[in-house]
Amino acid sequence: xxxxxxxxxxxxxxxxxxxxxxxxxxxxxxxxxxxxxxxxxxxxxxxxxxxxxxxxxxxxxxxxxxxxxxxxxxxxxxxxxxxxxxxxxxxxxxxxxxxxxxxxxxxxxxxxxxxxxxxxxxxxxxxxxxxxxxxxxxxxxxxxxxxxxxxxxxxxxxxxxxxxxxxxxxxxxxxxxxxxxxxxxxxxxxxxxxxxxxxxxxxxxxxxx
Length: 209
Known about the structure:
The protein is of the alpha+beta class.
């Protein structure tokens, strides 16, 4: 019999530090066939036909996107560097953390520092890993590597792609929290970066607010 939600609760021990354990894993679906609908160097779309555990089938569309990086830059004086970026799909310009694709063969941490330098002109004294995440896991296995870059100093001019429209500004942590609470951070990557940074950077935060 196929286990229902009540049967899948993991009764194993929690992780060290009292972190609740992950749920027990469901087995993957059997894929009867797959069809590639669109393919490019930027994005791809495939259609899978799944065999359902209770019988029958269902098609599932999967978007294939390479790994990305997002970096939360904090200056040597404790301010957060954000970019105001225009986004063509919805036509809005809003505050974001620097982000972009990991290039082929590139270490994700190096990619984060590259995006930081290209989009803002800042360089970091240190980069540390924060928890990564799936931003659109209902339709894609696309993964974002998240980093904090501390001790940032402005060293270069921006090096933008022709289609990029970006301005750079620094914010106090209090201003970042005000933007979050007001619903002004509309980019999910940036919201997670700021929330992880708020909790995990500790002494790196600007004590002046």
